[in-house]
Description:
By secondary structure, this protein is an alpha+beta fold. The chain has helices at residues 3-14, 80-94, 142-154, and strands at residues 21-27, 31-32, 35-36, 40-50, 53-55, 60-62, 65-68, 102-105, 108-110, 122-125, 128-132, 139-141. It has 3 helices and 12 strands, in the order αβββββββαβββββα. The longest helix is centred in the middle third of the chain and has 15 residues, at 80-94. The protein is elongated, with a radius of gyration of 18 Å.
Amino acid sequence: xxxxxxxxxxxxxxxxxxxxxxxxxxxxxxxxxxxxxxxxxxxxxxxxxxxxxxxxxxxxxxxxxxxxxxxxxxxxxxxxxxxxxxxxxxxxxxxxxxxxxxxxxxxxxxxxxxxxxxxxxxxxxxxxxxxxxxxxxxxxxxxxxxxxxxxxxxxxxxxx
Length: 160
C-alpha cells in the first residue's frame, strides 16, 4: 500500500459517520418520437466532499461543478453563466435528486499510483503526497490538507 493509499484509507475511517454528497452524471436528453427530451442528472453514488477532492469508499475523484437541485422555473438572467447553472439545477431535479440537495457533476477519477503533476490536484513532490487546492495556488502536504478538511466536515463552523 502506497503512502497516498494509506492516507486515504485513514481518512475514510475518520469520515465513517460524516455526511456525504451525491455524485451525478449529466445525460443529454434522448429523442422520443423525434422530439428531444431535456437533459437530466442521474445519481452515480455519493462521496465525502473534501475541498478539491471527492473521496468515495474505493476511489478519489477531482471535483467538477457543484449544483443544488431545484425545480425549473422561468426567470430572467443577467448572465449566461447563471442561466447554465439554473439549467443544471433543473436537470438534477428532473433526474430524481430531491430539491435542495447538493450534487457534484463533471468530476473525474484520479489514479494515486500515477501522479505526475499538471492540472490534477494530487501530485508527488520529493516523495511526499501533495495537493493543489486551486489552479493558481501552490501545493501543500496531503496529510495536513485532509486533516483540515475532515475537521471542517466533521465539526462545521457554527451556522455553516
